[in-house]
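Might you be able to consider the sequence and fold that I enclose below?
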Amino acid sequence: MSSLSRDDVAKLAGLARIEMSEEELVSLASQFGMILDAVARVQDVDLEGVAPTSHPQPIRNVFREDVVHPSLTPEQALSGAPAQEEQRFRVPQILGEAE
């Protein structure tokens, strides 16, 4: 069984900036060991004849004609807006405000 020490888990927690109690450090040390064992078992699988893939289903792009369709005029699009300015929606400023 692979294992990580309590100190290894504490170092990982420090790198991730996660505060952990002593109980959590000890508990996670054994849980990480089980995870490492599971990963090691996956690496032992015979992959002879299995093509590498990034997705379980075949992926292909579906293309369509790029056709221009009629759309709303600026006036129609802004007709229900509570506030507008220069043919644009006017919204409250959120960036650059006093902090």
Notes: Residues 6-43 form a domain with the Histone, subunit A fold (CATH 1.10.20). The two ends are 52 Å apart (CA to CA). The helical segments are 6-15, 22-43, 74-78.
